[in-house]
ORML1 protein (Pelecanoides urinatrix), 153 residues
Amino acid sequence: MNVGVAHSEVNPNTRVMSSRGMWLTYALGVGMLHIVLLSIPFFSVPVAWTLTNVIHNLGMYVFLHAVKGTPFETPDQGKARLLTHWEQLDYGVQFTSSRKFFTISPIILYFLASFYTKYDPTHFILNTTSLLTVLIPKLPQLHGVRIFGINKY
């Protein structure tokens, strides 16, 4: 029993992405980002789509794959301190519905950005590179792996 704690989870970070309304809020946030970028007068539609994709993937990489630990006080003896948010998600179980959603969403955004940029080579390279930077860390084979010791501590 956790005395003085407002939640019953040992690590609330494991369930926050599965919570009610999170997926809708996430989709609305991406949509609002795109609308804001479209409202900037000197951005064309292809530039706005590419920027939406790149900003989304940069944010996803930072918040899910680079930042480690939890923003909460957890009674787990510091086990979550060395894990990224993606590794903590759903207690590390692979192929759950929230992991599938957060894997599919950048792919859908990539397809939309590629379509609206009419597969222009410059935009295509930027969008593909951006997509790969968020999809590769999500692979189950890379769970807990630190390439070249980057982000080890």
About this structure: The mean pLDDT is 87. DSSP finds five helices and no strands in the chain.
